[in-house]
Amino acid sequence: MNAHADLGANPKPPVDAARERPSDRLPSISAENITVAYSNGHVALENVSFDLAAGTICGLVGVNGSGKSTLFKTIMGFVRPTRGSIRIAGMPVDEALKANLVAYVPQSEDVDWNFPVLVEDVVMMGRYGHMGFLRRAAKEDHAKVSEALERVGMASFRKRQIGELSGGQKKRVFLARALAQQSRIILLDEPFTGVDVKTESAIIELLRDLRARKHLMLVSTHNLGSVPDFCDQVVLINKKLLAAGPTETTFTQANLEKAFGGVLRHFKLGGADLHDDDDRRAVTVLTDDERPLVFYGENGDKRPGSAGKK
Amino acid sequence: MSELLVPFEYNYMVKAIWVSGLVGATCAFLSAFLMLRGWSLMGDALAHSIVPGVAGAYLLQIPFAAGAFIAGFLASIAMWFVRQQSKLREDAVIGIVFTSFFAAGLLLVSINPTAVNVQSIVLGNILGISDDDAFQVVLIAAVSLAILLVKWKDLMVVFFDETHARTVGINPTGLKLLFFTLLSACTVAALQTVGACLVIAMVVTPGATAYLLTDRFGWLLTLSVLIGGLTSMVGAYLSFFLDGATGGVIVTLQTLLFLAAFVFAPKHGLLAARRPHASGGSAQ
Ligand SMILES: Nc1ncnc2c1ncn2[C@@H]1O[C@H](COP(=O)(O)OP(=O)(O)OP(=O)(O)O)[C@@H](O)[C@H]1O
Ligand SMILES: [Mg+2]
């Protein structure tokens, strides 16, 4: 299978290299036929292609081990594809990183938690791409750090040493760092895992803001229920690309069953369970994680919404 | 009273005090980084790895410091490379690389017995250092210190989170190469002041002491450099009265400071840990 889906809600940015500074270019990610194999021979991605343009929040959905994190690492250039290529804003990966175009929040942080840095120092590291040779923080940098900490609700923890936080709090600090970085492309690998619902809503709100300002975000998640809430595009993978496109047409029961097979918990309530009258419509609940996804309609064909959010 | 000022009447003492202070400060700067990544023993490993370089330098009639630096640099690159390519832990990697270098050194020395003045390598000889050597040491230390002062924040990000360093446009590989080059150079410099056995103390103890006193990397560097610099100057001064063994005096002073911090440090000290509600003062 070699699906090549054009996901751009907006047209691709003009490939006009001499136009302006690279960091001012419209963000875009284009994966072309990438195949990724790890050193143990395991092929984690096979022939995956997709295009994402500015002003998009794209949900990346798949079972454990389907290659979501691998895809992020490939976009970041930590894992090199054995075939195919990735271009960010029309540039090779390394150039895009040099231009501070991409912020990345990994699934798990590989850092020394005993490192003598405070929460605010970590978030300030997000600003380094905006600073000069000596990395001296200007007023604006301090303001952005405070703002980012405020957004993730960690402002009162700013003087804590980084290891003295709970798991969810640590996660929020690294989110804040990505926000302070102000890159136009943000990659978030399971940002909501271990984060409470209030913070999750705040982060989603924030991502929407960024979308309105023509940023591009790729977010992997197991919270299927919140995907229709904030993602306008989705990519479903399981080693290969299963489906990609706008949420309304791609995030369907049929595609999800393809992505999750028997793994998904699946409840179908209908007929007498649901209605007093002779109504053939049924509620279908698909769940991979905390928030179930609900389909309602005769064949589950109604636009999906999230349960528990009504 | 005037007896205490006697050392300053001797040119060689004044020179020794300043040179030691500068070397001590630079090593302390490096120690702040080494300690954090489990590379603490690297200083010791480098000091031993330098032996084949020194022996080789005598064989080839090139300057002692050049041979030492090349060997040290190769050893640190080898350690880093093995660490990257395998999943071996730092301690194993350091052990493997430095013993193989040290063995090669011993082999060279045994084949060519007249080669090395072991005494001055093991114990250092700052009080008897020649002007040329002193100049060399000062140059190495000063240049290293200057580079570190400019690049410490970039190095901090690389040591803390390499992944993130890349996303803000920092080149981690280049910076690590720079760091290990400086480390090798400073090990050679420290070797001439305190000797091979005690280099390890110079590149570990000040950073470890400062680590107990603060949670901010900037402060850690400042404290570490102050500790390293001052103990080295005072140590050199005291060694006038104690007749030689400068390295021993310096390291003893550093150890005493470490012990003091270990017991009395406000947050991470032994007493603070015993006190209930000791670690207040951070966020609410
Ligand atoms: N460093 C590695 N070396 C070898 N194989 C790996 C490595 N990392 C991941 N894999 C394998 O590659 C496949 C994809 O892993 P990946 O981490 O991308 O999955 P994922 O979709 O992020 O899963 P999850 O939902 O659990 O985070 C898995 O089969 C995994 O076992
Ligand atoms: Mg993953």
Could you explain how this protein is built, in words?
The complex is a heterodimer of chains A (310) and B (284). By secondary structure, chain A is of the alpha/beta class. Chain A contains nine helices and 15 strands. In chain A, the strands form three sheets. Chain A has a six-stranded mixed beta sheet, with helices on both faces. Chain A has a five-stranded mixed beta sheet with strand order 1-3-2-5-6. In chain A, strand 13 and strand 14 form a beta hairpin. Chain A is globular. The two termini of chain A are 38 Å apart. The radius of gyration of chain B is 19 Å and the shape is globular. The termini of chain B are far apart. The C terminus of chain B is likely disordered. At the A-B interface, strand 7 and helix 3 of A face helix 7 and helix 8 of B. Bound molecules: adenosine-5'-triphosphate and magnesium ion (MG). The site of magnesium ion has 4 residues of chain A, from helix 1.
Number of continuous helical runs of chain A: 9
| Bound ions, cofactors and other small molecules, one mention each | adenosine-5'-triphosphate, magnesium ion
* Strand content range of chain A: 25-35%
Shape of chain A: globular
Rg of chain B (C-alpha, Å): 19 Å
Low-confidence stretches of chain A: 5-19, 306-310
* Cα distance spanning the termini of chain B: 51 Å
DSSP E strands of chain B, number? 0
* Helix proportion range of chain B: over 70%
**What is the beta-strand fraction of chain B?**
under 5%
Largest interface: A-B, 39 and 26 residues
Question: What is the helical fraction of chain A, as a range of percent?
Answer: 25-40%
Q: In short, what is this structure?
A:
The complex is a heterodimer of chains A (310) and B (284). Chain A is α/β, with parallel strands linked by helices and 310 residues long.
